[in-house]
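A common beginner's mistake is to predict each chain separately and then try to dock the pieces by hand. The better habit, illustrated here, is to supply every component at once so that their relative placement is modeled jointly.
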Amino acid sequence: MPLIETLARMEAAAAGAARPLTTVRHRHLSDRPLVCVPLTTAGEAGAPLGALVGTDRERPLLLTVAQPRDRDLRFAFLAELADAVLPYLDGFADAVGHEERKETDPETGRKVTVQVELCADAPQLIVPSTAGAAYMRLLGRSTRFRRTAEQDPEAPYPAPPRVPLLGRWLTHLGERARVPGSCLLLPMTELLTRHWATGQSALEDQHLGALLAWIDPPDGHSGRTAAEHAESARDADGILRCPPAGPATDPAFDNTLLAPAMARYDAGVPGAAEELRELIGGQLRPTWDAVWRGYDLLRALPPGGHVADRWKRDRWSYTAHRDRVRAGEPPQPRRDDAVTAARKLASRETAQAQLDAQEALDDPLVMAGRRLAGEAFAGEVTAVEEAFSDGPRPMPRPLVTLRTTDTPLLTDGARLHRPLPDGKAQSAVFVAYGEGAAGSLTVRLTGGMGRGKVPAPGSVPEPGETVCWTLFEHAPRGGPQLPEPEDTPWTHGGPPASAPEGDTPDPTTPEDFL
Amino acid sequence: MTGAPWTSPAAPGPGGTEPFDPGAAATAATDAILHDTLHGTRPGVVVDSPPGAGKSTLVVRAARELAAAGHPLMIVAQTNAQVDDLVLRLAEKDPGLPVGRLHGSEAGTVDPALAALPEVRASAKIGDLAGMDVVVSTAAKWAHTKVEEGWRHAIVDEAYQMRSDTLLAVAGLFERALFVGDPGQLDPFSVVGAEQWAGLAYDPSASAVATLLAHNPDLPQHRLPVSWRLPASAAPLVSDAFYPFTRFRSGTGPGDRSLAFGTAGDGSGVDRVLDEAAASGWGLLELPARHTPRTDPEAVRAVALVVRRLLDRGTVATSERGPGPEPVTAARIAVGTAHRDQAAAVRAALAELGVGGVVVDTANRLQGREYDVTVVLHPLSGRPDATAFHLETGRLCVLASRHRHACVVVCRAGVAELLDEHPSTDPVQLGVTVKFPDGWEAHHAVLARLAEHRVGWRP
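With all components supplied together, the output reads:
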């Protein structure tokens, strides 16, 4: 944990209320997100128990499965979920703008500029917790290879028409959510813990109710007591007053209320299905409200400067998947091949580096954390000395001396970066610590001054100006070019087999195409 | 937990009581490796090398023999420093060998010493290096290099520190390769989660060798059986704690190396731990138990004082390399830490004591380097918890295996109890070979040994 977050947590613990970690909001929040609160059945992997889903906080759609072990009911649930989710996802597909992109012409091999569609906005699915996001991924994995009666008339257990498509979209959102800074699928607990530090452990922060209690305690309560109440207060029957955000349920609820109600349903008692709906809805509704409370808290923060840039990449991601679905491509394979896995990892590492840099540039409090960690320093310029590079065409390489109280981890010749007003970065190298005055150090500017023999106006800081240099790059580059999958080398098993994996059944349970 | 926990009668390799000729064992291993590299039928050869077992020497020799047999080759190393070091070693052994040093386009990446070598050509463009017998570069640069025709032979150095996805990017450049590395050092890592690929043979965040062997289990695997760096006092501990199933021996015997001081100790804890380390090869300077920030000021100062006294007391080292005692200068001493801020704090403390020229760095950056005496700030010193980072086997292994004579560890008391409170909790992933020994076990093994050389000190 970064030192500044440790300090914020200690302050929060001492004060009994959460402390902000940021001054701006670092994630895009849609004006009209789709919230989905799923619940799963204990002891039965991938058997949904119910969900609240919708874009209207006052009128969520309640979906329940009266007997989760009944696969017909499970499919009926998934079909209802598809009917609720797919229209929302599709709703962003047709409003498009146009962007220019460089592509390699397959005939000439030259790079040409082409016009491509980019959706003007993209869907955003918000779930309560990290486990909820993992559950979306699980639903995606378990449904995208299902066959409908239309696709395969011989299929013994055909899936309802739109379920496989739901699986493909959930898989796409789930994969995209692994990209740092992406916002197509967001767990509320992660959103809140990025912006506030509580006085409890990271594990306890997984409880949405307790997390919100620290950030926004009810009047007259400290965050600590409110969090304790949210975590452990039980009613006379021993049922948690604040149900867990799921997808796992409270075992006391399962044993005391859910199991008897299901037994009544199984026995055919009239009204048992309605009773179950009521029960499950009662467990879901507090979490639904909590997600929207978190949404409101985050919406109150102004967005960071680079948030729209990152959201644009999410829009690209959405547009690309829309195109794949429209082109009739098969569902995502069960496993990535070697090249795809390496490409994904490389792009996520780049995204992480960019996210870290952009958050610091957008937010002085985040930058303060980097300064505390020795990865950046700010100070007042005390002197600027004109200097030039060697070589046939001398270029300006001014020496800037500044005084700082930060303690950066500088090594000789360390590269430094500083944002310029036009958004570009200026590069420099560390020269030496100053003699005498503590905290004095000199850097040599190496870029961002234009191409002339005289630095462009405003590109060299003036004495008295406060500047902030970072040891990290502001727009880190991506990884190396990887071979095409069909050129996978012998070290990685050679090219992957061409048979689409979705068509091969599971070796132990042939009825499964998981 | 006491003593060496590893008793594996089936453990292959040197052991037992039969007379052991380290030179002959090492030569036999090298000959077998070179035979497989030059005449083998499989496209790859993997060589495991414990610390200081002559890995670089092997790479240089293999490169020269391949070149002499008329096979131009490419060499992949992981850092610019490693590449420069290899080029210098190649030129030293064979000044007439044409060597290309492929480098990045940024200025200052190449060691200026290379410019003085007549047969070494450095360039950022592979076209400029056509026809050279040997071309050396980093994996990162190779990954961006495109050639019409690849190489028939390659050597991949520090292959266990290379990530699988990096190998994927460069493997198209060669047909066959010799992979050399130390399996006990730090594994490659990723700053983002890669759990979704755990268990796949080509997990991009795994080490290059793990992927290579998963897909090609029949490749010949060799190992170098003798550490020429580690003294007789250190090899058994490092071998037992970190290489329990592929043991190695030290190339020198118990009496071959010694440390001596020009002046007697002043009785302080620092001097006593130095005396202990000179006598036994290990020293543990134990500070009172306390939870501290990472840059524990007392421990950092203790590290700096140990270095200061080591220099002040006129330390001399006797080894098989020279006829008489050689002074242990600042350049022959290194300080190892777990974190960069700790290294920075130690550097500042050393500057305060007027010490310059001593290398202070993290385990990651000390990999592959060698010194007479090392002073280590224990990764778990003063910590309230033991995370996977601090428990990583490779980190401790690197820190405990950089020295030719002695290693002094500075640590807060209470690490054994800390370990007992924090057993490893890494999730077990299907299909992933469990790394063995785990860091927890290795830490206990090293601590048990260090406890025999403990000097308590209250700053």
